[in-house]
Write a structure and sequence with these properties.
Elements lengths: L1 H21 L6 H10 L3 H18 L2 H18 L5 H4 L1 H8 L5 H20 L23 H25 L4 H9 L9
Helix pairs in contact: 3-4, 4-7, 6-7, 7-8, 7-9, 8-9
């Protein structure tokens, strides 16, 4: 009897680490997004999002990584002045320009950048447009005309579509990435 209990205990001790290593953390995105909407515990959320980003990068989970980056950007928008709009999203261009960024992540970033530029061109600016300029960043979007911004939105949407086809081929084993890349409703970003 004691030997069976001991064997059972050893089995639990031996199996538990193997099982816990295969379980992926489940994030409560609805709670995170609700907190952002309510502007509640934003600093704590940034710490939580940093942890999510770390795990997502390690696991090469582009959807979780992109979602964490996006939520972090929204929090930075809330915590900083409006004129830092493009500085808060500079990571998008960094990912798009980095030669080793994965195709699926680039696909999501094209969609995110198209949305970001479209929102800027439609938002009521609190400051003079020149205040939003970021001359030290790779791209200074605020200096561009409405027509140029619209062109950039279209080019990012086209790149999203092209990469989306590549994503379906190269990320065949990642249904979450494919779903995000290929099923995200485009009408939410395009102008009416």
């Amino acid at each position: 009897m004691k030997i069976n209990a001991l064997l059972f205990l050893l089995l639990i001790i031996w199996v538990r680490p193997a099982v816990s290593q295969t379980l992926k953390p489940v994030y409560r995105w609805d709670k995170i997004e609700q907190s952002i909407k309510e502007k509640d515990r934003l600093v704590d959320l940034r710490v939580e999002l940093w942890e999510i980003k770390t795990v997502a990068e390690k696991d090469k989970n582009d959807v979780e990584l992109a979602r964490a980056l996006y939520c972090d950007m929204l929090i930075k928008d809330l915590l900083t002045e409006d004129s830092l709009y493009f500085r808060n999203s500079a990571f998008i261009d960094s990912i798009l320009l980095h030669p080793t960024s994965r195709p699926a992540l680039k696909t999501i970033m094209h969609l995110m950048q198209a949305r970001r530029l479209d929102l800027f061109s439609r938002k009521s600016l609190k400051f003079n447009r020149a205040t939003y300029q970021t001359k030290d960043l790779t791209f200074n979007y605020a200096e561009r005309s409405e027509k140029a911004l619209d062109s950039l939105v279209v080019s990012h949407l086209l790149a999203w579509g092209v990469n989306c086809r590549v994503c379906r081929e190269t990320c065949a084993g990642c249904p979450a990435t494919r779903m995000y890349c290929c099923l995200t409703p485009i009408w939410k970003i395009s102008r009416s």
